[in-house]
Write a structure and sequence with these properties.
Layout: E1 3-6, H1 11-20, E2 27-31, H2 34-47, E3 54-58, H3 70-76, E4 82-85, H4 96-117, E5 121-125, H5 152-167, E6 172-175, E7 179-181, H6 195-208, E8 225-227, H7 228-236
Helix pairs in contact: 1-7, 4-5
Amino acid sequence: MNYFVTGASGFIGLNLLQRLTKRSGIFYLLIRSDDSQIKILNAAKQLGFPTDHLVFIQGDLTQPNMGIAPQWIEKLNNSVNHFFHLAAVYSLEADCDTIDKVNIDGTRHALQLADKLGVGCFHHVSSIAVAGQYRGWFHEDMFEQAHPEGHSYLTSKLASEALVRDQAAVPWRVYRPGVVIGDSKTGAAMRIDGPYYFFKLIQKMRNTLPQWMPILGLEGGRLNLVPVDFVTDAWIIFPISRI
């Protein structure tokens, strides 16, 4: 059982590797630089997962076939069971061109490569962002009702998921996590950004105001936060070894 993973050096990708490497097989990891390889190897020591079956492949997801060498395409042909595409720009501060090149073109090139390799299943990590400003429960069969507006990140996630739905030539699955935070048991996050700054703001507001005064819009409301272990466990809980 062999796997191809993009975005393995990211927060979610490393947690996914920690779980996938408990299975037998070879794990082909797309990296853009040696820094990414070093990051993965260092994280393996911290998270306690093996590295002997990790194979690093230099590439660039903004290029056709994700920029990997032709000999790799020949070598991996019909030998990859699961292709996990996690690589993306998640920062809302990135410029529009970069977001589109990585999130949209990157997904297009990932699909192109998956088709050439004849993979068993293409796993695309989308985002709750595809729902845009939709209010209420947004189900998996409501893609046509998704109309993100405003920020290019939102529209890029919708466009990239649309590519998977419309152009995937192999079996596929799409996952839409919310704002991913640290492990539910240990709290380990490997990064402090996004929602964690938001938590400090809430704490500062709470400490400033009288305890009897509710913080309207925050207390008792819903936030799309999800622990990283819940997310990655959900992706591999099904018997993927059968595909």
